[in-house]
Amino acid sequence: MSVRTDIENLKKQKEILEDFISKLNDAMEDAVTSINDKTDDLELNDDDEQILTEVSLLSEAVEVDMMHLLRDLEELVQGMDDMDKKFKLSK
């Protein structure tokens, strides 16, 4: 397998990851919105409020972690692409 093939495979995996992150973010936002909508009229105790806050914060943390993962993958693909170009130029 060539470096070029590896780079192209990483680019495809990056696109799949971008799609996954988008769908995951949408699902988490929908879940938090749904929970908030359903609990608006309820009187929640402190524990319930704490759980809802933690779910919301966890959702945001997952989004940030996924974006960092995506950025790292983009940097990896770019680095491999740059190395491949330099290698071809040095031949």
From TrEMBL:
Query: Which superkingdom does the taxonomy of this entry point to?
Result: Archaea
> This chain belongs to which protein, by name?
Uncharacterized protein
Q: Which organism is it from?
A: Picrophilus torridus (strain ATCC 700027 / DSM 9790 / JCM 10055 / NBRC 100828 / KAW 2/3)
Its lineage reads: Archaea, Methanobacteriati, Thermoplasmatota, Thermoplasmata, Thermoplasmatales
